[in-house]
């Protein structure tokens, strides 16, 4: 298997949908019918393994898969040696410490000598050690929030997104110990042939990501303010300026990051720009 790479993605869960849509947006076609554990693309030299996210760091470290998409929380917890090629910007969440709602929280010293239930014993013990807190860690694989109410632990350390699960279980979040998002990871010693394919995939992913964070903008402007407007929206090289049928007016086209657009909107309007259109970009290659 020389001229094909293998990527491990989560079979079903909070990473799956965004992982697969990123790959599809890269123009890579494949079939992933329900229950299928392996699939090969029909138009790119890549094979997919659909796995539990827990297994992805290990498979990539061992070279069973060349690439993988996994949450940083799972990657750091599993402590496997792989290379992180790219942060992917989705499946953002945090690992936090939480305690029963009614408890007074004086700071981290609260946890001294206490029991903490978690599915992330490594990340938690590194954090406690760095903060010189001695606590007993109880590893459980799921439903961690229930631990305090059944007397298993005084606190928990778990993934939080909105905090509603904590609230339903009578807990409050007191410390964030780790922030996570999905990352693309790679086996350390890929052959040159495989590296070449990985580079092609990365090139496409970068084009998709750049496209998403930028917008194509079009607007009409009086000719006397074109210089001012060109300074506000310089674009990739310079804006395109086309004459309108109406004398003294032009259409200005440019590319701008979404954040910058909102920062500059007042300036554009003050310079006399009107009929401003903001259009999504599918892919962007610099
Ligand atoms: P598996 O069956 O594959 O082991 P899982 O139950 O361990 O799945 P999921 O709940 O699908 O895992 O979460 C996968 C990853 O998504 C987590 O490890 C984390 O990185 C991220 N994640 C978890 N909760 C959220 C959330 N509420 N919002 C966004 N991302 C999240
Ligand atoms: Mg898992």
Secondary-structure topology with pairs:
Blueprint: E1 5-10, H1 16-25, E2 38-40, E3 46-51, H2 56-62, E4 67-71, H3 72-78, E5 83-87, E6 93-100, E7 115-118, H4 121-130, E8 136-139, E9 155-160, H5 164-168, E10 171-180, E11 182-186, H6 192-213, E12 214-222, H7 226-232, E13 240-243, E14 249-257, H8 258-270, E15 274-280
Parallel strand pairs: 1-3, 1-4, 7-8, 7-9
Antiparallel strand pairs: 2-3, 4-11, 5-11, 6-9, 6-10, 12-14, 12-15, 13-14
The structure holds adenosine-5'-triphosphate and magnesium ion.
Magnesium ion (MG) is lined by residues 52-54.
How does this model look, in words?
The chain has 286 residues and is an alpha/beta fold. The chain has helices at 16-25, 56-62, 72-78, 121-130, 164-168, 192-213, 226-232, 258-270, and strands at 5-10, 38-40, 46-51, 67-71, 83-87, 93-100, 115-118, 136-139, 155-160, 171-180, 182-186, 214-222, 240-243, 249-257, 274-280. The chain folds into 3 domains: 5-90 and 181-190, D-Maltodextrin-Binding Protein, domain 2, CATH 3.40.190; 93-180, D-Maltodextrin-Binding Protein, domain 2 (3-Layer(aba) Sandwich); 214-280, Alpha-Beta Plaits. It is 28% helix and 32% strand. The strands form 3 sheets. A 6-stranded mixed beta sheet has the order 2-3-1-4-11-5, sandwiched between helices. The longest helix is centred in the C-terminal third of the chain and has 22 residues, at 192-213. The site of magnesium ion has 3 residues, from loops.
